[in-house]
Write a structure and sequence with these properties.
The protein has 287 residues and is α/β, with parallel strands linked by helices. It contains 10 helices and 10 strands. Helix 6 links the parallel strand 6 and strand 7. Helix 6 packs parallel to helix 8. The two termini are 23 Å apart.
């Protein structure tokens, strides 16, 4: 079983102590996002966990525990979202210098093959226009190219709850040609820096412009990193464009405090704060 940790919240940044307590306990409890009264008990024992995929914007709080995870025998890799969009869109994200320093620290511990940089999601509007993205992406690649081997990007999905949060901002550009031009130029910049760019859950095949679809939960990467022989099993619980292999997510929605305006996992920062205040590292669930 692959553990996704987590699409629903930032466990490394905010709940690393809880995670380590649950690993010591050997299990955690995960409520069904659509029916909180329906709960699952998931084993976190090393013999039951094939690997852990960490999703985060700031890995630093978990780095001190990686030695323990290694000693126990867990296999893992990190996906780190770094957009550098500013407080208008990412209200509580740590300062970019602090994030980049943390990624450098993580690379020193585990090497670049176990770290994926996510420039995700791409939003094209009056503020985050083509020129901004090219300048920003180029800056970030310069800072990160020694710390990662692969970049995953995506284009914002117009979920109703996301659009409701963003309705007072500029109109989001959805012209396919403009989006594809930007993605193609991202790919050229990545190739120039010897990095691989893939795209997550996109409705159009972009292999003609050199961009392969991503598997964020990636059996092939785990096979390459750890000498495994995992076969591909599509995760049918994800949207149809998603190519991830099957995993179990241990997070809960409305518990991340990053307060990103475009986030699908947090409907309101107030709700996330209330849930965070309920949290203790001793609970079986996050809150």
């Amino acid at each position: 079983m692959i553990i996704s940790c987590s699409r629903r919240t930032d466990i490394p940044a905010f709940y690393s102590g809880w995670l380590m307590e649950r690993i010591r306990a050997g299990y955690c409890i995960v409520p069904n996002p659509l029916n909180p009264r329906q709960i699952s008990k998931l084993s976190l024992k090393p013999e039951d966990v094939t690997a852990i995929v960490f999703w985060t914007r700031y890995p630093e709080p978990l780095i001190k525990d990686l030695g323990t995870l290694n000693e126990i025998g867990y296999k893992y890799y990190f996906q780190i979202s770094i957009n550098n969009y500013g407080k208008k869109y990412e209200k509580n994200n740590p300062n970019i210098k602090k994030v980049l320093k943390s990624v450098e620290h993580l690379t020193d511990k585990i090497g670049p093959r176990k770290i994926i940089w996510r420039y995700d999601p791409v939003i094209l509007d009056d503020s985050l226009n083509y020129d901004f993205h090219i300048m920003n992406f180029s800056f970030l690649i310069k800072e990160l190219k020694k710390s990662v081997k692969k970049i995953i990007t995506s284009v914002i999905t117009p979920y109703r709850k996301v659009l409701n949060k963003m309705k007072n901002l500029e109109k989001i550009e959805s012209d396919k040609e403009k989006v594809h031009k930007l993605l193609q130029d991202f790919n050229s910049i990545a190739n120039t820096n010897s990095l691989q760019l893939e795209i997550c859950s996109y409705h159009t095949d972009l292999t003609s412009i050199g961009i392969k679809p991503a598997k964020c939960i990636d059996n092939e990467l785990l096979n390459a990193l750890y000498g495994l022989n995992l076969s591909y099993r599509k995760d049918k619980s994800q949207r149809k464009e998603c190519d991830c292999t099957i995993s179990k997510d241990i997070g809960q929605y409305n518990s991340c405090l990053m307060n990103c305006l475009y986030c699908y996992a947090t409907t309101s920062n107030e709700t996330a704060l209330r849930n965070y205040q309920k949290h203790t590292i001793k609970t079986e669930t996050i809150y």
